[in-house]
Amino acid sequence: MNIHNKIKYIENLDFGDLELRLCDVSMNTDVDPLLTKKFYEYCTDKYLKFLKLCVIYPDKKFSPDFYIDLIWHYHILDTKKYINDCDVIFGEYFHHTPNYSNGVKNKEPKIDDISYFYKKHFETEYNLSEEDYAELNK
Q1: Helix (H, G, I), strand (E, B) or coil at 13
Q2: Domain boundaries, the chain
Q3: Are 19 and 38 in contact (CB under 8 A)?
Q4: pLDDT exceeding 70 applies to what percent of the chain?
């Protein structure tokens, strides 16, 4: 599958009832964060953009931020779907390697600066401002 078709596939990813699970208090569980719809949409959009960058730059090593990581974890939980999506998009399982850099010396190879590529392709900043964060949580 060529890059264009992989990007289209990513754009059409369906996370099923994940929005309900994370945004609806009646569906939310004790272990799930309760998000506003805007916050959920932001995280999901950012995760999809992350996947696109990983397709466009397969040799780069990008480290996801909290927002990407949140949706990625829930995507992985739907194991059959995640494995199928990975096979279509990457041709293999796309491994998630946690970064335990809180005070622990990171022995991972150099991480590429995702913010540069994010801005280049999506014409928006990678990092969320305090004002935007507050707006997403209203």
Answers
A1: coil
A2: 3-136
A3: no
A4: 90
pLDDT category of residue 102 using cuts at 50, 70 and 90: low
Q: Tokens standing for 108?
A: 């991972």
Asked if 42 contacts 136 with a C-beta cutoff of 8 angstroms, the reply is yes
Place of tokens 């569906």: 27
pLDDT at 75 over 50: yes
pLDDT greater than 50 at residue 103: no
Joined together, the tokens standing for residue 11 give 């754009």
Q: What are phi and psi of 26, to 5 degrees?
A: -75, -20
Structure token pair of residue 115: 């913010």
Amino acid at 65: D
Q: Which pLDDT belongs to residue 5?
A: 97
- What is the number of other CB atoms lying within 10 angstroms of the CB of residue 89? 20
With H, G, I as helix, E, B as strand and everything else as coil, classify residue 58.
coil
* pLDDT on residue 30: 86
Residue in 39, 48, 38 with CA at minimum distance from that of residue 15: 48
Token reading at 138: 């209203």
